[in-house]
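Students often ask why we bother encoding 3D structure as a string. The short answer is that it lets us treat folding as translation between two languages. Here is a chain of 374 residues written in the first language.
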Amino acid sequence: MVNKKRLLKTFKKLISLDSQNPPGDETKIASFVSGYLKLLGLKVKTPTFKKNRVNVLATLASKGAKKSLLLTPHLDTVPAGNSWKHSPWNAKIIGDKIFGLGSTDCKCNLACLMEAVSVLVEKKIKLDYNLIFAATADEESGSDLGLVPLLEKNILKADAAVVLDADDFEIVITQKGLMHLKVKIFGKKAHGAYPWLGINAIDIAAAIIVDLKKQSKISAKNKYLHPPTVNVGTIHGGDKVNVVSGWCEFELDFRFLPGSTEKELLNNLEETIRKYTKNFKIEIQGIQDPYYIDPSHSLVSGLVLAMQNLKIKHRISGSEGATVITFFKKRNIPAVATGFGRQGCAHIADEYASVKNLYNGARVLVEFLKNYKS
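And here it is in the second language, the structure alphabet:
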């Protein structure tokens, strides 16, 4: 049912439309996607939260349906940079590889969804739910001009969601939580020749960091994820080489498992710091909750069945990094992620997708959408 020639044409057009972020401008690609969907008879809206930062929302309504299912890829890409051997915009095909900026992340997923909707409309396939199509802006910079305000302002409402932003038919059902924070240690300045007259904040910070890195407390386990981690991303301190440092600050990146909480992490961090000093401050910069959905949920089982029916190898997995799935958790919307890019190809020079994955990805979406029970 999937029209491979049309699918490739759509994909090549998407690649040709520059949507690098930064600088951030989804107008051209959003115009193409919205025009494509309007021709299929879908009702289309283009919410915009900043000039040129356009989102595309469309609904394939099913008469009498009470539930809705959202599928959402994103429109923007990372910048191309200067290391490409192939053109980032021409979608050159060599063997099974089709090169282009955003080919894997995530214009292949966008093209597959557009083709799947085309098939549903052409074949007049009756769904027992309303299908919501949301191609969003600003994913590569935190989604503050895309998915986040769409959900927070109740512009985008759904009973369940599939995020199309993954590779090689993996089905992401869980991910680590994230907490970024800055620790400020305050010491006492003194002449470097008389260090015993001061309190060296750098020495204290170093001891705290070593202690944190030695800790191996695991309060939760998840077979799809590696153990929790802590990374020291930056460290700054002191004013001059011959002065005892009166200050030091460092930034920490915590990744923690479902079943753990940021409160537990903060309590442990404070206990560790207090072993070395009482003169400190912690500034929280950002938190994203961990996520887990049961593998028996209809979103997961529906995707698995679709791939099995088409004899396509799938993999249930977890994400070590933060994804947009957690934005749905805040709204109590069950969600999973899947996709058809090539693992290891996102954000690289000469990024490419697989022609085979592209075709099979569209087939999977058609199979999943026509059989999904809301």
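Translate back mentally: The longest helix spans residues 103-122. Keep this in mind for the problem set.
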